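Backbone geometry:
***
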Amino acid sequence: MNKLLYLSFFMAANCLFPVHASTSFHSDMKKKVNIKMTINQQTFDVELENNPAAKEFAEQLPLTLSMEELNGNEKFAELPRSLSSREVRPGTINQGDLMLYGRRTLVLFYETFQTSYGYTPVGRIIAKEELSKIARLQRVEITFSADN
């Protein structure tokens, strides 16, 4: 009888005072963060990934890097501090992808191509039409800043 009474009380309490999980944490996790990237007075919007590497990258802003040419499809530079790394093998790198190679090398891709290398996604350029103009430059100064 006591078990039946307890069960009835428990069911009634759940109906009167339902427990709901908070979704605020999950909605915060899905918010996209945008930053600015400036190359030769041209500004691009960058949408950061929702991962620890992107968050740690944003914490280093503002940041100006001298990025060097590599392979006819990318510019790269060493970051002042290492970032968390969770490599994926994307198969296809898209123009405008901003990736981390290893834990400290930031790579900006200005061409789309196939790859077997692993990278940690950091972000992507939103409007990348003008990005191919940096291809002819051996070294380029790029400033990343918060989107205010």
